[in-house]
Amino acid sequence: MLEFAEAVLKEIRRLRDDTAFAVLSNRVKDMEQYKQLMGRLEGYTFVEDAVKQLLKSNPDLQDL
Asked: Do the Cβ atoms of 56 and 62 come closer than 8 Å?
């Protein structure tokens, strides 16, 4: 369980970082793509927070 949770959080962070890099490095073609990428960033943050909240119920996994 711990390895799976770590893998999920690692992938969420990687996707979020890649998306943020695309926005910050001026790779955005137009406002529509910008809105899409910003929505993804919000989604990744939401999912990461939800996973962390669920893991808080298990004391062995709180350090993730």
From this structure: yes
